[in-house]
């Protein structure tokens, strides 16, 4: 009897494991967190044919909550968030108004609610519903607003707890690489038993010398992934890895502390070349089998830096952390060296955004004159990381061949600076010599009273796409700003009594402008059609030599029908993020 009972128990456990594994394969994408130590998991798969997402919610039956709100936030705001509200018996579709009230939608688009078993619930949502209060799902990053309620739920403030999570909803499944355990090694860079600051936001930098065994000969990085100290998942927000360009073994750059500390070694400013990034929820970043990133060898930087962004919303004290990045590398070199190239706008106040703008676009170019320095057969882009600061709302990079837009490298219509992610591409983008790339960022400065300058500070702005590609090119930076002479002509035309021989800086001249609607429109036209000041830089940070006058390059022009996209007009099918 006992053996029969034991067999029955084992059979039930085994059956549950099989079911769990099957569901995980059927729903390959997920976000997860915990509320009061109760695990919350939302899994999903993408039905491209039917243009819908099938969600699976794991909602523990022992949890003291009656309902879970799964919200889709446009840019990380609570107001106007679209949501599916799931109880243990039903679901409804709604939105959060400006007073944080939870309002049901006239059209219900969270559909096909099914209880799979106790604590596991299925529902579906179309990519686009044509409801102006609904979120339009796309292949860029998304912000989930997750809230749990134990009692009434008329307002978001009634929630027991609220969290933001990040993911790409419309993801494509990319098979994992085959590991070669006989040749691969791993190395860790990051924190070691440090105390996390009680401040809500803090950035810690960890600079380490690369081991001599790595520097001795060339290796290839084939994978890197984030490691987060167990229990600190709610605080470790994202991490970035930088090489310290030009650093030598004889230098002493080792450092551990605030990234903004004045006591940082002066030469650590060279730790600026991004080679990797990790954000909460991201899995390992794997290089394609054709290529690997160079790690070690002659003239390779001797120091590496990991920057960790901690987000301590509860101001917790005494939290010990040893999070960081694990790099997997091999001495079995792959066919191609992978490279990283910066596209977008030059870090300069020539690229500045006027205040009071809801959607001000700026575009940086990688012109044909620069892509002519690509390898003979061009390059293949296999991953991409879009980046802007606090006012960036929509970012995308377009690819042009013979003056015609042939596709996009990446797009983030719901961009948030709080989630830095390298997106792997299932279909690599082949950029040939003579093609050009344009990276556009759309900024919202409605709450600003002064210009937002292009620059490095968090309150300045950037517009960058770090593309990962192979084979490595002579070009490391391919970015632009408006031509200085053209910009100076704009200032002379719009600032009263400004002489041609003035000594004012560009930022000072921007502040001298009378910000009228016509001046803003003139500036926008200037950015759109003016000649370019190009940074077509090599690995030494210098302009590539040739016949081109890089300070006065004509902006590439489209032809044969111009720029178009095969999409439904935003006025034909309304969404909340138009």
Total discrete domains: 3
In one word, what is the shape? globular
The SS-based structural class is mainly beta
Give the biggest beta sheet: 11 strands, mixed
Low-confidence stretches: 8-20
What do we call the CATH topology of the largest domain?
Answer: Jelly Rolls
Reported CATH architecture of the largest domain: Sandwich
Domain Copper type II ascorbate-dependent monooxygenase C-terminal: 337-488
InterPro entries: Cu2_ascorb_mOase-like_C, Cu2_ascorb_mOase_CS-1, Cu2_ascorb_mOase_N, Cu2_ascorb_mOase_N_sf, Cu2_monoox_C, DBH-like, DOH_DOMON, PHM/PNGase_F_dom_sf
Keywords: Copper, Disulfide bond, Glycoprotein, Metal-binding, Monooxygenase, Oxidoreductase, Signal
GO molecular function: copper ion binding; dopamine beta-monooxygenase activity
């Amino acid at each position: 009897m006992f053996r029969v009972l034991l067999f029955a128990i084992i059979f039930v456990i085994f059956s549950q494991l099989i079911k769990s594994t099957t569901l995980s394969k059927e729903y390959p994408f997920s976000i997860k967190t915990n509320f009061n130590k109760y695990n919350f998991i939302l899994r999903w798969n993408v039905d491209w044919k039917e243009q819908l997402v099938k969600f699976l919610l794991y909602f523990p039956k022992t949890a003291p909550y009656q309902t879970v709100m799964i919200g889709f936030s446009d840019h990380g705001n609570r107001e106007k968030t679209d949501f599916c509200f799931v109880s243990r018996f039903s679901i409804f579709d709604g939105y959060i108004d400006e007073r944080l009230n939870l309002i049901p939608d006239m059209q219900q688009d969270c559909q096909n609610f099914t209880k799979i078993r106790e604590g596991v619930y299925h529902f579906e949502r179309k990519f686009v519903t044509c409801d102006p209060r609904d979120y339009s799902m796309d292949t860029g990053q998304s912000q989930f607003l997750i809230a749990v309620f134990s009692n009434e739920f008329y307002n978001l403030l009634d929630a027991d707890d609220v969290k933001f999570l990040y993911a790409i909803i419309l993801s494509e499944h990319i098979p994992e690489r085959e590991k070669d355990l006989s040749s691969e090694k791993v190395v860790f860079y990051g924190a070691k038993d440090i105390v996390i600051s009680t401040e809500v936001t803090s950035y810690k930098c960890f600079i380490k010398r690369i081991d001599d065994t790595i520097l001795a000969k060339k290796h290839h990085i084939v994978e890197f992934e984030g490691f987060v100290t167990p229990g600190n998942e709610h605080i470790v927000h994202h991490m970035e890895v930088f090489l310290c360009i030009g650093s030598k073994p004889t230098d002493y750059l080792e450092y551990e502390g605030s990234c903004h500390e004045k006591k940082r070694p002066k030469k650590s400013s060279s730790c600026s070349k991004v080679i990797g990034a990790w954000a909460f929820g991201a899995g390992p970043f794997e290089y394609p089998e054709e290529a690997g990133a160079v790690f070690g060898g002659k003239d390779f930087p001797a120091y590496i830096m990991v920057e960790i962004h901690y987000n301590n919303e509860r101001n917790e004290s005494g939290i010990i952390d040893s999070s960081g990045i694990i790099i997997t590398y091999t001495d079995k070199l792959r066919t191609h060296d992978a490279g990283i190239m910066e596209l977008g706008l030059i870090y300069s106040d020539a690229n500045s955004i006027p205040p009071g703008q809801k959607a001000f676009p700026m575009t940086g170019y990688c012109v044909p004159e620069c892509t002519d320095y690509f390898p003979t057969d061009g390059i293949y882009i296999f991953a991409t990381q879009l980046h802007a600061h606090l006012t960036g709302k929509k970012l995308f990079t377009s690819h042009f061949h013979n003056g015609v837009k042939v596709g996009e490298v990446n797009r983030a219509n719901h961009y948030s600076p709080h989630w830095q992610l390298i997106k792997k591409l299932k279909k690599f983008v082949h950029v040939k010599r003579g093609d050009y790339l344009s990276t556009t960022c759309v900024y919202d400065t409605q709450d600003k009273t002064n210009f937002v300058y292009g620059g490095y500070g968090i309150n300045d702005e950037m517009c960058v796409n770090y593309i990962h590609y192979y084979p490595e090119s002579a070009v490391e930076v391919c970015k632009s700003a408006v031509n200085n002479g053209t910009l100076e002509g704009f200032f002379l035309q719009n600032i009263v009594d400004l002489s041609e021989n003035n000594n004012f800086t560009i930022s000072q001249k921007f502040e001298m402008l009378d910000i009228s609607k016509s001046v803003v429109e003139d500036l926008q036209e200037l950015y759109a059609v003016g000649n370019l000041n190009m940074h077509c830089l090599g690995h030494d940070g210098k302009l590539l030599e040739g016949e081109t006058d890089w300070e006065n390059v004509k902006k590439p022009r489209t032809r044969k029908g111009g720029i178009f996209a095969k999409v439904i007009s935003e006025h034909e099918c309304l969404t909340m993020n138009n």
